[in-house]
Amino acid sequence: QVQLQESGPGLVKPSQTLSLTCTTSSSITTKYYYWSWIRQAPGKGLEWIGYISYSGNASYRPSLKSRTSISRDTAKNQFTLQLAAVTPEDTAVYYCARGPYHEQIVRGNPIEDYEFEWRGQGIQVTVSS
């Protein structure tokens, strides 16, 4: 079983940068795992934001790519999300997760088909002045 825990501020002002950290119980450099951030806005479904791979490569949702950065600290088994220039539309519960599966990346599956093996409990982030 893999445990993931999100941490960070629950309230961010508009135009600021949202920064969240995920701490995992598993090594984030183990082949061939991918580590994602996903979110769920009120009344909407899960939305994949991006991932960082076991090798350190990152990939982002096209609509969020210009504002998103995912980095990692391999010594601490942590990976971090930064989402810049937030607006109230970025208000959501943010989750970190292990996934998608390596085979889904290799096959080029659409992001809507991504599956996540383990997920944290989530953290509510509200964007408001």
Describe it:
By secondary structure, the chain is mainly beta. 5% of the residues lie in helices and 44% in strands. Strands 2, 4, 5, 6, 9, 10 and 11 form a seven-stranded mixed β-sheet that branches. The radius of gyration is 14 Å and the shape is globular. It starts with a strand and ends with a strand.
Compact description:
By secondary structure, this protein is mainly beta.
Write the topology of this structure:
Layout: E1 4-7, E2 11-12, E3 18-24, E4 34-40, E5 46-53, E6 58-60, E7 68-73, E8 78-83, E9 92-98, H1 102-107, E10 118-119, E11 123-127
Outline type: globular
Structural class: mainly beta
Rg is 14 Å
Strand segment count: 11
Separation, N- and C-terminal Cα atoms: 39 Å
**Topology as a string of helices (H) and strands (E):** EEEEEEEEEHEE
Largest sheet: 7 strands, mixed
Strand content: 35-45%
The helix fraction, in percent, is: under 10%
Number of helices: 1
Average pLDDT confidence is 96
Stretches where pLDDT is under 50 for at least 5 consecutive residues are none
